[in-house]
Write a structure and sequence with these properties.
Layout: H1 5-8, H2 12-33, H3 35-40, E1 43-44, H4 47-55, H5 57-66, E2 72-73, E3 80-81, H6 94-102, H7 107-125, H8 130-141, H9 144-152, H10 155-176, H11 179-195, H12 199-222, H13 226-246, H14 248-258, H15 291-294, H16 326-333, H17 338-346, H18 366-378, H19 381-399, H20 404-413, H21 428-448, H22 464-470, H23 474-506, H24 514-519, H25 524-557, H26 563-585, E4 591-592, H27 596-599, H28 604-610, E5 618-621, H29 630-634, E6 636-637, H30 647-667, H31 674-678, E7 681-686, E8 695-698, E9 706-709, E10 711-715, H32 718-725, E11 733-737, E12 754-761, E13 764-771, E14 775-782, E15 788-792, E16 795-797, E17 800-802, E18 806-811, E19 814-822, H33 825-854, H34 862-866
Parallel strand pairs: 5-6, 5-7, 10-11
Antiparallel strand pairs: 1-4, 2-3, 7-8, 9-14, 12-13, 13-19, 14-18, 15-16, 15-19, 17-18
Helix pairs in contact: 2-7, 7-8, 7-10, 8-21, 8-26, 9-10, 9-26, 10-11, 10-12, 11-13, 11-33, 12-13, 12-19, 13-33, 14-33, 16-25, 18-21, 18-23, 18-25, 19-21, 22-23, 23-25, 25-26
Length: about 850
């Protein structure tokens, strides 16, 4: 699988043509998989994308109307920065590279296409032939998790994973071939990966890079080549800085925001009251998430078997069962009408693993698993140590609380790790490492016995000394060696399938949800029998693909197949295997004719509220208020849907707002929640019921956009502050932490004082006020120090925080114009750094292309060193 001098001297078009055909093949694959989007005009029903469109609507409206970026929005949680919602950085020129790479494809189609192309680029960078590189791209691109997260709407996560192979390609080229070309490729890959804005995926990717670096360092010490190691490392460090610089605006604003979000340090010392059956967001001490919240999604130790047997734990939380299933028979016997049976079977709780909910397993493929095991036997020591260590680390990290001895130490002491939740996501390391070693193993086998069926063998071998000892041709020795290792890999993989089958014989297939089902009289024995059947079926399915792939390689080593035919057949088996499992979780049932506009149709309650043309007021949807952004599309919402809301606002929700909402329910009074009144909650949307439809109820207690208070209740710390809010009359009194915001007085005259909002924009608010005497004004706006500035008659004036989350301002007597402007210095600085770094990146890429053109590839490839 090497490039000969003759091939290197071939005309450019002949060298480029196989790569163009490969890219065209990937385009066809992505188009076929997502044909409902491209050919039927449908969209993918993605829950998180729907929520994103709701939360980002206000920012999108401002951008469309004025071209201005809304750096703040009032559409979610009473107000928050848009840094992690919808902020664009004009200085980041990598957006044009992304448009070039995705060739105008719709988002989800582009994500799959990119995953295939970048996987192919990695394999080509390894020096593999175009055909073997296609096999590797399919293995990397169609891993089940890639399609499952698209079905859920995790587009940024998918995009970050799609670009990850480019980072590994640059890493390997830099260390195993040419440091300058590798550094340029590394900078490009990491730039696009970081730009995707899913830092948890980038974090796991860099863990794999770190493992590579440690392994390389150990071998560099042994081989006495430390200067070369540090030179290449330093060059990659510069490339990484360049990549970070391109996304500096996004990273810098995110870093600043994280200090105030639930990922930052809590100011409260007393623990939050635990809601029954719920895991709280904030931590009690330190910085980052708490353990319970971060490890709530931990992969079960036994669940690791899904890498080889996808339905080992029942697939997704809800799966469709057939009409011939045991559950179908039991429901029919219980009297369920045939017309309703399909609806019952469409969403059965088949999953019985440790996670509270899952959209599907991480399945790398039975063929890939076999080749991965083979790679552990035939790849060079450095490569297999790196990829095996990365895989094992991935698995252990994904176990989370199920292996707490190790994972709690990592969580507490490894830099930045406590900022992330859903540790099961760590398996993305394995889904990168395992296919890479698998495709290297495939290349090793195909390289081991050159020639066509029936042709005489060429004496090429990686074991010349063994050939000399045996007196046999090198090709014969290498073929015998590869046959032996193939049989070992087959035995090991088949043995794991057998263990999975035996585990199914002793498992009880019980899930936490079963207790609830039992109370409802559901036929649990039938459901558990179906769970067992799903496991057994997939064990035999995996065994079949393992046997077929091993058979192809065996026939190749027996000179019954050519190298090209063997590679094509293994690639086909890999595609059929992964495609079949992917379609369980993202299939035609996931597509809809509905457009984004049709997903947000104003209800009668929304229409009623929209008749109110005041500049600004807030709305609370009482149905699941803090996990939906439908309301945010039409109104300035008290609630919303976001994984990193402001910590102080989360404190307010848990300690004051939720208890007060219970009072609204019990007393049937919309004005029974003072916290809602101070947030200017003018309307409450009540849930629909059998007796009445959804309604918009006006809250007579809403205090408006701003008001003068008569007194200040001083407190000395955040705990006193949040407690005082619970007994506060916000219309007359403001709670102020005077340890942070000292005030000259605590009593104010308010008679005859008025204030009104005269102009509204997400980034700027203008008020007109008239007062006979100086006073303290409280604004129903969220306090956020990094960016908001207050001005009185054009002159900057210091403002303070009141009522735990709101802004307040001391205003002199007389008539004045008050302005609040959101102009964060981080955005301006970040955008400038991004622009400079983008220009430098373009220069580096052009230099890399020129270098690649002037310095033709050597007649050896990286795979020579990886497969020796």
């Amino acid at each position: 699988m090497t490039t000969s001098p003759r091939q290197a001297a071939a005309p450019l078009w002949r060298r480029v043509l196989p790569h163009l055909l490969a890219v065209l093949f990937f385009l066809v694959l992505a188009a076929v998989y997502f044909s409902p989007i491209l050919f039927d005009g449908k969209t993918l029903a993605q829950h998180d994308i729907v929520q994103f469109n709701g939360g980002a609507h206000e920012a999108a409206q401002l951008r469309e109307a004025t071209g201005e970026e809304a750096l703040w929005t009032n559409s979610m949680f009473s107000g928050m920065p848009t840094y992690l919602i919808s902020t664009r950085f004009p200085g980041d020129l990598s957006q044009y590279l992304h448009k070039l790479f995705t060739i105008g494809l719709p988002a989800v189609v582009a994500n799959l296409f990119l995953a295939l192309v970048c996987g192919y680029a990695l394999c080509v960078a390894l020096g593999l032939s175009p055909l073997v590189s296609v096999v590797g791209a399919v293995a990397l691109g169609f891993t089940s998790y890639n399609l499952i997260i698209l079905a859920a709407g995790h587009n940024t996560k998918s995009l970050a994973l799609a670009y990850a192979p480019l980072v590994l390609a640059g890493l390997l080229v830099a260390f195993r071939r040419n440091k300058w070309l590798g550094a340029a490729l590394f900078a490009l890959g990491l730039t696009m990966n970081v730009r995707s804005n899913h830092l948890q995926i980038t974090y796991y990717l860099l863990l794999l890079v770190l493992v590579f670096g440690v392994v390389e360092l150990v071998f560099a010490v042994r081989e006495k080549r430390l200067p070369d190691f540090f030179t290449r490392t330093a060059l990659l460090g510069v490339a990484a800085l360049l990549a970070v610089g391109v996304s500096f605006g996004r990273l810098y604003t995110t870093l600043e925001y994280s200090k105030y979000s639930i990922r930052g340090k809590s100011e409260l010392k007393t623990p939050a009251p635990a809601a029954p059956g719920q895991v709280q967001d904030p931590v009690e001490e330190g910085s980052g998430l708490n353990r319970e919240y971060a490890f709530s999604y931990s992969y079960g130790i036994g669940e690791t078997a899904t890498l080889l047997v996808p339905n080992f734990y029942g697939g997704a939380s809800q799966m469709k069962l057939s009409d011939n299933s045991e559950t179908a028979k039991a429901l029919t016997a219980a009297g369920v009408p045939p017309a309703q049976l399909s609806d019952y079977l469409a969403q059965m709780p088949t999953y019985w693993g440790d996670q509270p909910i899952t959209s599907g397993p991480v399945y790398v493929g039975a063929v890939v698993f076999l080749l991965f095991v083979l790679g552990l036997l035939v790849a060079d020591r450095r490569t297999r140590i790196w990829l095996l260590t990365g895989t094992l680390l991935s698995i252990v990290l994904a176990w989370g609380k199920n292996f707490d001895t190790f994972n709690y130490l990592v969580f507490d002491y490894f830099p930045g790790y406590n900022k992330f939740r859903a540790v099961s996501m760590a398996l993305v390391i394995a889904q990168l490492a395992m296919p890479v070693l698998a495709v290297l193993a495939l290349a090793r086998v195909l390289r081991g016995r050159p020639g066509q069926p029936g042709e005489p063998a060429t004496a090429v071998s990686t074991h010349p000394s063994l050939a000399a000892l045996t007196g046999r041709p090198a090709d014969t020795v290498d073929t015998a060696y590869l046959k032996k290792q193939l049989l070992r890999a087959l035995a090991a993989t088949a043995g794991l399938c057998a263990l999975a089958f035996l585990a199914g014989l002793v498992a009880d297939f019980a899930a936490p949800i079963d207790a609830q089902l039992q109370q409802q009289g559901f036929p649990l024995d039938a459901l558990r029998a179906d769970r067992a059947s799903m496991l057994r079926s997939d064990v035999f399915r995996s065994l079949l693909f393992v046997a077929l792939a091993a058979g192809v390689l065996w026939f190749f080593l027996q000179r019954k197949l050519s190298a090209g035919m063997a590679a094509a057949l293994v690639g086909l088996l890999t595609l059929v295997d992964l495609w079949g499992v992917d379609k369980r979780y993202l299939n035609d049932g996931n597509f809809q004719q509905e457009t984004v506009a049709e997903q947000f149709v104003a209800s009668p309650a929304d229409q009623q509220i929209l008749q109110d043309k005041d500049l600004s007021y807030r709305v609370l949807n009482l149905q699941n208020p803090f996990n939906e952004a439908q309301t945010s599309y039409f109104h300035k919402s008290i609630g919303g849907y976001h994984g990193a809301k402001l910590r102080r606002y989360q404190d307010l929700i848990e300690r004051q707002m939720s208890p007060q909402l219970q009072r609204i329910y019990s007393e049937s009074r919309p004005d029974a929640a003072p916290v809602l009144n101070m947030l200017n909650t003018r309307y409450l949307i009540t849930p629909a019921s059998e007796k009445q439809p959804q309604q918009a109820v006006r809250n007579p207690g809403a205090l408006g956009n701003a008001w003068y208070v008569a007194r200040v209740q001083p407190v000395q710390n955040p705990d006193e502050e949040i407690k005082a809010v619970g007994t506060l009359d916000p219309a007359t009194t403001a709670v102020v932490d005077v340890a942070k915001f000292p005030l000259p007085q605590t009593e104010y005259g308010t008679e005859g004082s008025t204030i009104a909002l005269t102009k509204y924009s997400p980034n700027a608010l203008t008020y007109r006020t008239t007062a006979a005497q100086a006073g303290l004004v409280v604004f129903s706006e969220i306090y956020y120090a990094d960016g908001w500035q207050a001005f009185i008659d054009g002159k900057e004036a210091p403002h303070l925080r009141a009522d735990y989350v709101l802004r307040a301002l001391q205003v002199p007597a007389g008539s004045h114009t008050i302005e609040f402007k959101f102009e964060p210095a981080q955005y301006a600085l970040g955008n400038t750094v991004s622009l400079v770094s983008s220009v430098l990146l373009v220069v580096a890429l052009l230099a890399g292309l020129y270098y690649a053109y002037r310095h033709r590839p050597e007649p050896h490839t990286i795979s020579d060193t990886l497969l020796a």
